[in-house]
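Sat 14:20. Reprocessing the chain from the morning session after the first attempt stalled halfway. Input below, unchanged.
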Amino acid sequence: MPFFRTLTLTSVLALSAGPALADLTPTQVWDDWQSLLANYGSELSFERTSNDGNSISIIGLTATFPVVDGSSVMELGTLTFADNGDGSVTIEMEDDIPISVEVNGPDGAEGAVSMTINQPGAQLVASGTPDKLHYDFNYPVVGMTDFTIEGPDVPEGIPLTFEFAFSALEGFVALEGAGVRSYSSDSTIGLLSMIMDFQGETDEEGSGTFNLMMKNLTQTAKGTIGTVSADMSLSELIQNGTSQTGTGSHGEVTYELNVVTPDGSFEMAAAATSGEIYGNLSETGIAYGGVTNDVTMSIGGSSIPLPPLTFRMAQTGGDFAIPLIPGEDPQTFAMTFSLVGLEIDNMLWGMIDPAGALPRDPITFMLDTSGKVIVTEDFTAPEYAESGTPSVPGSIEELNVNTLKLSIAGAELIGDGAFTFDNSMGMPAPVGVANLMLTGGNGLLDTLVGMGLVPEEQAMGARMMLGLFARPGEGEDTLESTIEFNEDGSILANGQRIR
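Finished this time. Tokens:
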């Protein structure tokens, strides 16, 4: 992750804020940089230093970071820390920072990735005191160019272009304390763009392009910075003092994918008006989620035997929260997914239902679950993934289905449930109750039979199955079901034993 580590250097080391509490010297800021870099396991080397009384320059500076099975080298060039005369210090950096990553695989194969971070016109100002530093940053542009990749499975001279850029990046990061340091940050980005382009030399190699654009990004974060090393798992990072919680948002986002192969072409484009994300890393584990609003997606191309199709969604999103640190006691988890207001292209509806017999209301699906698990192994550790056939890293103890909802073609299924699990026999055996209600199911089945999509004998079999598992509800065309899983292994549907 060398690019993001550079952002850590140039944004986590770039901070804000009000009047200086005391005169801050260039040497103190340089000391803080060394401390932060060392915290990430960096080894620093430089050719010489220069001090003219008002500023110090570190000339020929190189930072080497360990990564899994290799190392990353960042050529920072000349860093200058200049006293502004008002208690603050300006940090001047090179416009271009080359980065290279070299790794050695388990079979001795070597690979390398290189790139250049471009940051012309970057402005960084430090203020505050050595134990309470603020870095204010303003980057007109932060980009990544000159991307290359080498490896035993990568063709030499691969015709790949990869560029990544931020525009109008500004904000602050504030650091406080010593050892395990606390921090807070706030930043905005006017525009994010990414371009990937592959142009094969022959038609057999094909070609492809991917373009992404996001506008008006914001982020806020706070947490602590503990000891970091390349081989640490997420669990170990947390136990060594690292934590973070943050939120973000974005405005309009668009992306396009175009692929051409000997078998034909494929095109996909998507857009959304806005979105939000959040994340958390702490002793309770890792949590991440978000929503995207007003999504439009289209697909087409000669490899698809249909005209271009368009789909729309009012909102889609999801989140998860899972524990990471192994222990003997149950820990909570949660997972949700939602797809609200999915509109299918009328071309597809017309192929399935040319007479318009089916309601074409937007489709909605929601699932909200939570529960408890016991984590027995650190499944984020590199050695766990490298073990070949890793064992299950824990056991599920409780599962709650807080919400289940599916509405499609005039029918709606809703439900909930709560279960505990007996893991004494190896396979978890559930004990609990699930509640389900189906509205409009028989009407939808009648329509499908009338359209000829479902044979009458199959519909009769489906109705018989519903009769076993469901009972009539209060409303018209409403079926309800209560499914009980008992400790003796029996299963009851509405009080009738089915196993």
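The chain is about 15% helix and 55% strand.
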